[in-house]
Amino acid sequence: MISLEEARSRILSQLHPTGAETVALAAGWNRVLARSVLARLTQPPADVSAMDGYAVRAADAVGGAMLRLAGEAPAGRPFAGAVGSGEAVRIFTGGFVPEGADAILIQEDARAEAGNIQVVEGVKQGQWIRRRGLDFAEGAELLPVGRRLTARDIGLAAAGNHPWLVVHRRPRIGILATGDEIALPGEALPSGGIVSSNAHALAALVASAGGEASILPIAPDDAEAIASLASGGGHDLLVTTGGASVGDHDLVQKALGTRGFALDFWNIAMRPGKPLIWGRLGATPVLGLPGNPVSAMVCATVFLLPALARMQGLPDAAPPTIRALAGVDLPENDRRADHLRATLALDAQGEWIATPAGRQDSSMLAVLARADGLILRAPHAPALAKGGAVEVIALAALGV
Amino acid sequence: MISLEEARSRILSQLHPTGAETVALAAGWNRVLARSVLARLTQPPADVSAMDGYAVRAADAVGGAMLRLAGEAPAGRPFAGAVGSGEAVRIFTGGFVPEGADAILIQEDARAEAGNIQVVEGVKQGQWIRRRGLDFAEGAELLPVGRRLTARDIGLAAAGNHPWLVVHRRPRIGILATGDEIALPGEALPSGGIVSSNAHALAALVASAGGEASILPIAPDDAEAIASLASGGGHDLLVTTGGASVGDHDLVQKALGTRGFALDFWNIAMRPGKPLIWGRLGATPVLGLPGNPVSAMVCATVFLLPALARMQGLPDAAPPTIRALAGVDLPENDRRADHLRATLALDAQGEWIATPAGRQDSSMLAVLARADGLILRAPHAPALAKGGAVEVIALAALGV
């Protein structure tokens, strides 16, 4: 058995970022930049007004002064001339400050009178002027390589005049569920069978993390059928579920073995989800998840999410955790890293309280769906009294 | 001026959840259920083994006993007969416990010998048996109406045998950017013009929150053109940007007025983003955001995200906040609710430290993109010393 951290690090070390592709700005949300975005213009392109009011010479615009209205400068239509001595130009937010003016008299501080402006409150030089390049200068890096793009970033790339973005291609993840006993929802169930839930749950997880999932047809417990479906190719990573356990029915390893599968490891000191296969079938990395739906989702959170991040050019990292206080006493842990399904609630002090479900049986998918997070318990962690600090993977925040 | 909370509550009170539609299970991620998901079967469908081993009668399986191997019961292929006295049946995780057996002897505690099994470690009655219905019973509510579906929920709906889900239709949001001075990225810029960034940033925000955005052609500063584009219909909500300010160029209200626009309010005690229009054009609610990109995104976070949630059948709520400690002294606030762009960093104690950007000028989009969150400052909030507790909207976690 190897540790969870070693397993994750061995998985990540064998994955590489996908190649780059060009997408329209509108399709860039949540994608990861493969090329930095540099400003193609300076913003604002000139000194502009920060307010609606009048562009003036500060030396003229003292309290009580009367200024002649020489024209106007709305945003997008710069005033052609210059503001001369004793003059003012009507200006609006974003309008270019005309030549000669060095301050903005806001409209609340002026009184307009038939072609003239009376200054009610004097101005200081530079007042309410946004300098050219205040937001960014042409050539400046707006967004770095490796950034997952937010809605704000899309706005900033647009402001920098980019209709296209260069991002990492979505990793293509093949998902192969195996087992004689499983059938897709709505299909006729074999006697003694259960409905397959892993493939669709994993596909949702892959999509939410920026990947592109293909759900392969369910493979029966037959080495030739498994090998044939697994060898279809076209995936950056093949994920199998089922057939990974220690029993006589761990067919996936045997099946892939007939096609030259190179096993790296298959046994991790974690719970739920001990039997996890990692290896390579030809050029395709293969992650073999347990068939148990709870184990499959916990292993996907712990290993597949970081794998998807790495394949998109993001830094290697464990799933993010939040700090919480244990809602009950937690017993000493054994040698396996444990992941306790738990609810999260805020207490009166604004602290998260994480309370594990009373029953952690790994077959209970409903308990997983109702959980807010997974409390992490390190191997051999000592007993922890109620109120002690724990780290929790907040699942919904990860799209899981 | 009305308060931010009153504005949000008036906006939400005039919006309604969209109708229901049926989507394939695979398309259900992040959608909101309009009909609850009830289990269509019992899971597990019978008592099943929790381990690989042998189904036995506990009374027989005492340490040292020798049991006759009567057959096998892998998952999906129940053993047809019963386990008689002195007998054992090979069983695998998920296999149905055969009639007569009342415990599982795990394989690590047995020794297999030519058609027989020697018990190394005795078993207790019921040991390693998962009872019928342990996960859920037929008819039980697996997922309630109004739930935004996670990847785990998709798995649970699958396990409950649902190939289809009934969810709220994605709200259709029309986005209309106005202004003579703006052009789309890559298009020829008018002299004195700037690149339009709001429409694409807002569309990304809408999509990330579960809506469907249509970016309408940019409207010039012309009442007739604005009115015509805004009246196209087909949207659950029309969002405009620009033309909402107090100046002479607040055209949106005038333009829509020609088509019977019913204004509710337009002035909110908040910063950035004071001039915000809320009203109705015929049957279509209209949210008029400021043209300033920072104000537009902050107002979208504060008003449009909750609006999208409400239109999808989620409960009314302000954007979620996290608790942090102020990284610098914060001055007393004036009468407007403030939203300070800030970075977030964890200190050694695991507390979030929120440090506002040195310059909060609302034209600085790059500062917004680089921020991790918005520190909320209530109207008239007293000065707060460094280290005091603040609430922060964590933007990236919201897809913004």
Structural commentary:
2 copies of one chain form a homodimer. Chain A is α/β, with parallel strands linked by helices and 400 residues long. The first copy, chain A, folds into 4 domains: 4-17 and 170-311, MoaB/Mog-like domain (Molybdenum Cofactor Biosythetic Enzyme, Chain A, 3-Layer(aba) Sandwich), CATH 3.40.980; 20-43 and 137-168, Molybdopterin biosynthesis moea protein, domain 2; 48-130, Molybdopterin biosynthesis moeA protein, domain 3, CATH 2.170.190; 322-394, MoeA, C-terminal, domain IV (Beta-clip). In chain A, 18% of the residues lie in helices and 30% in strands. The first copy, chain A, contains 7 helices and 26 strands. Chain A has helices spanning 4-13, 151-159, 198-208, 223-230, 251-257, 293-311, 365-370; strands spanning 20-24, 37-38, 48-49, 53-56, 66-73, 87-91, 103-106, 110-113, 116-119, 129-130, 141-143, 164-168, 172-177, 182-183, 194-195, 212-215, 237-241, 262-267, 270-271, 275-281, 284-289, 322-326, 337-346, 352-356, 373-377, 389-394. Chain A has a 6-stranded mixed sheet, with no helix packed on it. Chain A has a 6-stranded mixed sheet with strand order 16-13-17-21-20-18, with helices on both faces. In chain A, a hairpin with a 5-residue loop joins strand 23 and strand 24 (352-356). In chain A, helix 3 (198-208) packs parallel to helix 6 (293-311) and helix 4 (223-230) crosses helix 5 (251-257). The longest helix of chain A has 19 residues, at 293-311. The model of chain A has no long low-confidence stretch (mean pLDDT 93).
